[in-house]
Amino acid sequence: MNLRLYLSELEEGFEFEKAVCNHGFFMMAPNVWNPIRKTLSRPLTLANSSSVMVTISHPPIHPFIIIDVHGINNVREADEKLIFQQVRRMLRFTSKEERDVTKFHQLHEAAKESGFGRIFRSPSLFEDMVKSILLCNSTWERTLLMASRLYAMQSMLADRKTRSKKRKRDQEPKKEACGNFPSAKEIASLDKEFINEHCKLGYRAKWIIELATKVERKSLNLEEMEKGEMEPEQMHGKEECSKVTIVKEAQLFYNRYSSFQSLAYWFDLIQNYEAKHGKLSELSRSDYNRVGGCSYMNQLKAD
After folding, report:
1. Residue 116 to residues 101, 113, 187: CA-CA distances in angstroms?
2. CATH number, residue 232
């Protein structure tokens, strides 16, 4: 079944390809970008906490996003609402995001001309946070592998759960459950030994379980973080910084883009990536592991 998510007047200049392929998260499981068809496929969560595979696309010039929901003939209203909510988060379809993009483009002409302004996200903040942990002290190749293993682990557990329910009901035809990136509830129910057995996350498993447990116990309110209602100190846990963590040249260079310094830096980083590897949206999945971090500081010093 196809759903249509209509764009607002402010989003008329929206470019789907550029809104997706601007951050390494689009390369991480369970996201699958098709460089030929310019589509993004991945599972999304339904109202009953199960998952469904969708394919997202944007026909040129059309005022809507198409969401092809696989395996469902009629999408319930509650599920449609949740699917739209997740897609809006991924593509940053909110009035606040539109205002921010407009303000950023007023400061950064090159970004405006290239259509850059939205940083791709996951359907949930929790998935973004876990993937950020996977980036810690790791090569990009291993980060991609760890994300794939988490997805495979959740798919295995979801399939076991579905088969168990069917055995209790009757002998229905066997049908595999749709896997997804693990939720906070699912992670919190596991121990680090089990996660490392299947995903080999190392010490990151402990951090991810602690994060999931805090979310489940409501000691960490992701909804408040999402709405920007938490103080910066609560969100970032700032500590004393050293010369190793802050580079004065970068501060001076990016202050011109206040309060969009991070977005301006990411634009430069993407330009650097694509100068070395070609357009990210045109890479094959086998090439993803060679797209690693690179320093922009030499150019900053030259400027």
Report:
1. 9, 8, 34
2. 1.10.340.30
